[in-house]
Batch of 4 targets.
Target 1
Amino acid sequence: MTKKGKTIILLLAILLGYSTRLMAQGDSTSLRPTFSLDATTEIQTDCEIAKWVNLLELHATIPISRKFKFDIGTLSFYTNDEEGLLEDMQIFSNLDALNVAFALSTAGFTWQINDRHSLFAGIRRIDEDYFCSDALSTFTNSSCGGFPTLTGNYTMPTYPVSAMGLHYVYDHKNVTFQASLYNGFAHQDLTGRYNVFRVCPKTDGVFALTQVEYRHGDSHYYLGGSLYHGDFTLEGIERITRPSIWTLAEQALSPDLTLLAAYSHAFSDDEVFNHFAGIGLRYVLGRAEFGIFSDFVHYDNLDLDIATDGYEFATELTCKVHLTDWFSIQPVVHIINTDGDGLCVGVLRLNVSL
């Protein structure tokens, strides 16, 4: 086992022992630790070559008292080919990453202030709190896990990297308000200059997000914004401020049919992704979820001496079947057009959640 893995296991053992002692002293139900495992394997193919990817996520929630708890989570990723199967801008699979073992994805304390307010401090990813609705989670493309005007423009704390930060939640009746403040650059390593514990606003900058969710029956409506302030060179020489906004509507057309409509915009001229828009449908039939999601993104090729405009249209057709409460199978087809070049890829995803 690697040194990284041993450190994480030791930390878990210490906290578990403390939580067990608290259980013996008080309410054993409310102070019981919980553990979860989520394993996903996926085959991707464009009918010429195939790629195999695997993701393992481990998570533990360890109560410290009735108002405080500690969360810790890791992710491990393995693929037989770290190169992308396609040269698409949005990255058709939200699993794709570089090989890594037991990277720390979550580690921090939550203070449940009262029934409405809570505050988290520590290592976290924004996709644990934003862009994670049931409707968006049906789809496997990366843009549904985080709109590209955010995830494509910044090295922000979203899968597979994390960062130190604060996350506040207000939840009352049909309204949820969230606000987050993170170190401006996200990382994976436990040691070295650029580690996941790094807090350095002078060079990394800061990244702030906020979102309001309104619920009406089975419909959900989201409005959010982000602000990055810092220097992309990590030298702290030229600091800039870059705002962006997004909105998402999940309109229930019937108890089983949901219409999705999304839009996001980045206001700075020197960002890669400027506009994103998407529309889709999700239909639930028994243990099966059927979905179609089409989106458009406009981008600037800033690697060239003269910036050039580009665009990409992408459509995902998916069917997720829950064979049991803990096992699902999901065949997917992605149809992509990048600057006039048409691409098509098939995916078969298997998931186990315990």
Target 2
Amino acid sequence: MTPANSLSPSSSLSEKIDWLAERHWRFGREDRFEELLTDIFNVDDSGAITSDPKRDPLINETSGIMLLAGSGNGKSTLLGRTLERATVLDERTKKSPTGNTLKITVPPSATVKSIAEKIAELTGYEEIDPKAKVDEAWSIARHRMRKFGIKLLVIDEAHHLLRTGPGRDIPGAVQALKHLLQGDGSVAVILSGVPKLREIILQDPETDGRYFKFELDMIEAGSQDAERLSRCIAKSAKELGLFLDPDDKLSERLIFAEHGRVGRTIRLAKETMRQALIKGRDNLRLEDAEASFAKRYGSRSMSPFSPSAWNVVQADLEAAGWVQ
């Protein structure tokens, strides 16, 4: 087998596809986010984070991070990669029952109580009594985290916890996010969600003030992130044996097509390369990007991957009020 971090001229199609799927394209935001972890965890003499949450010595409270980005902008991927690289933080799973980190992805139907029930479940608690009150459920959850040495709680798609509707308790949910950081059983917390998450939490300045903020911006044409994306695409194409014509302006077209959303732009770039590999080509063509785009959003008479010069295509699409 070809090593996961390199390919050879004899690499098979399946090896190339697997290699491409595993590639992580770094944009610098990973380093900035990892640096923020030093604000919620203590560090050792080398400056690396430990697994011990940093506490305010006066009130014994921990801190958290709010990771904010629109849908498709790569927040879940950034979060996952960061946890992989932070070797002192080990996610607790059935395969790793001694981990010090819990990760929960909040479904749209979640309630404040259901999150406490999920924490209890992940720590091996059979079932919280359905008749238990919310405060009782959270008391069990906090006890379980303390008992099993949980240091970090990651709540992905946290904005779902703050949805309105019957049976919803937004003030109670916000208070729960604050209480996670208070007292002897408190842990470090990372909340990941869309910008609406902070808008709601801002209703309680005390809770908002306990969380550092990290916002993922869109990729803008001509920016450093756009240049990094272009280099990532070029390097990956070269490794895969795919010629990339710089005059096609593929990265610019991809950014425009996905409105600069990082996660979706990378997804479309990789799907375009995969399309070319499956077709047995030795070059990346705009028609590969067009086909991949059409699978996601439907075909149309003109798209960012139309064969004309990019400046002409872009001007025509902008004049027509481009939407996906």
Target 3
Amino acid sequence: MKLSDNQVGDRLHAALEAVGTEEGEAIRGNTALAAARQTLSLLEQGRLIAAERNSDDVSVVMSQPIVPPSEYGRGGYRGGGYGGW
């Protein structure tokens, strides 16, 4: 079975909600959560932009700035543009 674009979007959104907004106890966990939030958000945004452009090109995902690891640690990074983390 293949998923429709809407089903893919629903699953990306569900994954983002599953990651949640809580912080990890350790820097390692916090960094992993921040990276997961950023990645899932960019994938979701890239899919929406590509759909709006009626294109299969999701290169917008590849052209986003990378947040240095030092900004992830100790709760300093709150993500960009999704849900106000």
Target 4
Amino acid sequence: MKKIMLLMMAALAITTISCKKDNKGGEDDEKTIAKPTYRVKSYTHGKDFFNYSWNADGTIAKVELGYDGSVYSIYAFTWNAGTVSVVDQKADNKPIATITVNDQKLATKIVQPGESELSKKKLIECKYDDNGFLTMAKVEGKVNTVQVIDEDGNIEWWGRVGVEALVSESTTATGWRRKMHTYYGTVNAAGIHGEWDEDVTAKRWFYETGLLGRASANIMRTAWWWGIVNDDKTAVNPEYAAKLAYYPLDVDANNCVKKETKLYDTKEKYEADPSTMGPDDEYEFVCEKI
């Protein structure tokens, strides 16, 4: 009898170690999300272009910002323990930002003396999960946005202002809404930030440095707003999506995004119908092996 009890206790201990509680109170297997094997070397957005240089340890070293063939800023990143200093080498090393980073080498605090090509805000503070995904950001002292990551390592949604209502799925809070996403089964090999959280207030090019956390594990397929405020400004309708953005899959042989084209649906629905869509925005990427 004593031996049976010991075996039962051992089995219980193994079960406890191999499972973890999720945020809904259930139990899920521990899952580690694979990291990208490629990274951005450069990308263009209309006439804007951005060129990236990386340190030997994989951290960002420099980003050239240009327009119509001419470089107008060179943001250089100097790493010193838990601090990263950013200066513009095209403007006599003008100070741009001081960034505090955590053990994951992710930005937990960004302080700027004024507006820059990084952000228009002077203070951004961020939190991340164990896999390196952004989960919350404060802008100048106030919570501005949250992100929810699904079990596959994809950004399920990020939310604009009003964190409590977003988390509780309230439908009576004015001005609170989510940007929802769906994904292809294709791995996002270069970690392109197609679903970047705009309400952190940092520019898209800064996301591609990796300092604001990881991109989704798979390539984004669609995006739409959940919970648009009604015309009377008194409630939100969770079933309403003013426009659905659809992104055709365009990758190379290594599953690196070549072109990110956003098409907008003219109908109020959640499923993409390319025949009713028109082009809205486009990015083109060149990636390199890490």
